[in-house]
Description:
Blueprint: H1 2-16, H2 33-45, H3 47-64, H4 71-84, H5 96-119, H6 126-170
Amino acid sequence: MRIIVVSGILLLYLILQPTYIQHIRMMGIIPNFAVMIIVSFGLLRGSVEGAIIGFALGLLQDIFFGRAIGFYALIGMFIGYVCGIPNKKYYRENYILPFFLVILSTLAQGIITYIFTFLIRGRTSFLFFIQHIIFPEVVYTAALSLIVYRLIYSVNERVEAREKVRRKHFS
């Protein structure tokens, strides 16, 4: 059941990213829903599942929207793994940690993307990139992150409740 639900969320992201998400663009910046999804699953399910979902979502981004296969897959896997580390040590109802992890993850992804896509091509205007692309994306993504975390949290709670009932029937 969990695989079907997660696949549905990833498919929904793939459908919405090139269509409706483009319409919520502000000042040329789109919120990074991929990072929000990866951080949410990492926190709720742990490092291994966070890394798997991060890799899968990143690979889908590479295939459908990227220029090279594997770039966003590796970044997504890293973000999912790192954000899954505090899984057992924090309360899921706490919204402060997901908020800050989304900020840090979006910032890290932006800097890594800058290094590997712009700096290599000789574009060295790092301050411009920080001020006009990375920072606005971090703010916009963080502002929407709590809504996305809450949605994924409620979906995860339903799936876990269903899994618990199924385990009782088979025990």
